[in-house]
Design the sequence.
């Protein structure tokens, strides 16, 4: 995967996946167009205590996480999902996208807690996928409030 830089370290020691695309920000977006700056969110949650949570309820809200945990079956699901979202995107582009996710799953640092908002993962989907691949049933998480999310929009 030429040109892929797996992680950067922020000023307070948390790691984040980052590609070498100029101007790309680490964000979380919803289908309704809302977008949050995750680096700002990391700064807000650094003093929020982490707790151990079950993985299954998180995956129930975001089944795509499981696709990256089980690449053999997940690839077919990923192709079907992308074909539904954008029928004009060709298979080579979808394959590269899936491969990039797999590289990120292998490269994540599972030490960092994921960030959840109302039980939905806003940062750490690849860490959850890695935990599933490793057979873990729980993961450390920091839960954020609506006010924290609003401050990062």
Sequence:
């Amino acid at each position: 995967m030429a040109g892929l830089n797996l992680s950067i370290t922020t000023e307070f020691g948390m790691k984040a996946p980052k590609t070498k695309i100029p101007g790309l920000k680490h964000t979380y977006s919803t289908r309704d167009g809302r977008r949050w700056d995750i680096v700002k969110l990391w700064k807000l949650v650094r003093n929020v205590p982490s707790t151990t949570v079950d993985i299954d309820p998180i995956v129930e809200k975001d089944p795509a996480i499981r696709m990256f945990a089980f690449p053999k079956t997940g690839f077919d699901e990923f192709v079907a999902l992308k074909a539904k979202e954008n029928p004009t995107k060709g298979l080579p582009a979808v394959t590269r996208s899936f491969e990039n996710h797999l590289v990120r799953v292998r490269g994540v640092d599972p030490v960092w807690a994921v960030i959840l908002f109302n039980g939905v993962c806003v940062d750490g989907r690849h860490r959850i996928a890695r935990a599933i691949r490793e057979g873990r049933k729980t993961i450390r998480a920091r839960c954020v409030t609506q006010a924290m999310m609003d401050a990062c929009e």
